[in-house]
Amino acid sequence: MRRSRLTMLVVIAALVVGAAMWWQAAEPASRTAQAPVTEALPGPRVPSSPGTSPPSTPAGTRLTAVYMTRMGQAVLDETGAVLFRYERDDPRKSRSACLGDCAIVWTPVTTSGTPSVTGIDPALVDTIKRPEGAEQVTLAGRPLYKFANARPGEWTGQGTDHVWFVVQPDGRRNLNCLPGPVQ
Length: 183
What we know:
This protein is an alpha+beta fold and about 180 residues long. About 20% of the residues lie in helices and about 20% in strands. The protein has helices at about 1-25, 30, 100-105, and strands at about 60-70, 70-75, 85, 105-110, 110, 115-120, 125-130, 135-140, 140-145, 145, 165. The model is unreliable at about 15-35 and about 40-55 (pLDDT under 50).
């Protein structure tokens, strides 16, 4: 009798541990990708003249190529925000697939003029017109975004739903620091 109780306790413990492991593995990528991840920004972030303030967004949008110790190659805007690309955007079409609620969480990088670049081939940078009329900046044909609540140097959202990636200066997706396997 004592042996069967011990066996039953071992079986229950194994089931609890197995369920906990399954629960952790089944957690959606979009949930795990929301944890804020910050890295100190390389300095100087944006060259400026003494006594002047950086241009305000969206006018005077600046794109700067940087190398971050953990993330690797990335692109920042004039505020130090890490920029992203969205895999559902088609680089052959002149439009964004991130509209409505998507554009609230993933803020489109917009400009009212020609964006200035540092460390990025200017031929890769262009703009497209969004449905509301704003000009969204593109890199290698892909519209650029930033995570709405991210602080400078933070890549919150990297790998979210396997469709949001930090963009590299050549427009490719950065596959570093992902929350899980991505194809």
